[in-house]
Structure formats: C-alpha cells, structure tokens
Design brief:
Layout (H helix, E strand, L loop, with lengths): L5 H19 L9 H4 L2 H18 L12 H15 L11 H5 L6 H17 L4 H11 L3 H4 L3
Helix pairs in contact: 3-4, 3-6
Length: 148
Amino acid sequence: MKRLKPVLLNVLMVSALPFLLTACQSTPVKEDALYVQLGQNEGIKKLVEDFINELLIDKRIQHHFEEAELDRFHDKLVEQICELAGGPCKYSGKAMKKLHSDFEINEAQFNALVEALMLSMDNNKISVGAQNQLLALLVPMRKDIVND
C-alpha cells in the first residue's frame, strides 16, 4: 500500500475538517418548530419564570410551592418544555407520576395551573397556535398530576 506524503495527508485532513465538524453538530431546529415559536431556550426560561410567579400568587395552588426548591423546579420545567417543544434539551427530572404522588392535586388546582400557564403564555406574546401546541403536549401528563 502506498503511503501518503505528510503534506498531502495534512491537506486532506484540513479539507475534511469542516465536514467532520458539521456531522458532529446536532440537527438544526426547524424555523416553524414549537421550540422556535416559544423563543427557544431564552423564551422558555422567561415563560417558566412568569409561570412560577403566577403559581406563587394564585391562592388556589400556591401552597403546593411554599417549600419547593424553585430554582430546581424552574430548571427542570425549562428542560421539559424545551424537549417537548422539539428543542435540544433533555428532561432530567423525575417522572410526573412519581413527582406528584405525595401531593393531593385536585381538578380545580390543576385547572389553576393551566390558567397560570395560559396567562404566562399570553403575557409572553406566544401565539395561540403555539399555545395550543404546547398544551396538547402537556395534556397527557394530567393523569399523572391529578391524584385527588
């Protein structure tokens, strides 16, 4: 087998580098993806921050968050929404059923949570279409959250 000269080998490696680096990058998020419509990571962080603030002032549900680790709650909810919306995040928190098993969350409290999320999405000027997409992704979790 014929050996390549070091100069030729270096040229081949340098010319292949952009293709190798591109292959290692994650697939770009489509422009119309929910993740983009929500403002990507920064938009989702702002949405979740506003959502938590709404939960803390809603007398119907605020007691569930009095002793919560709010920074962790914020971070895990950002991960979860980001992943659900097609973003590059991976949710690393507990399963919803396990997480909510010790709470006695009833239908009215769950509805208060949904109302707080909708108000936060309105305040963050998220389109109705994007709101509906996000709510549709979250609806299956209801059975794991309501347990009273």
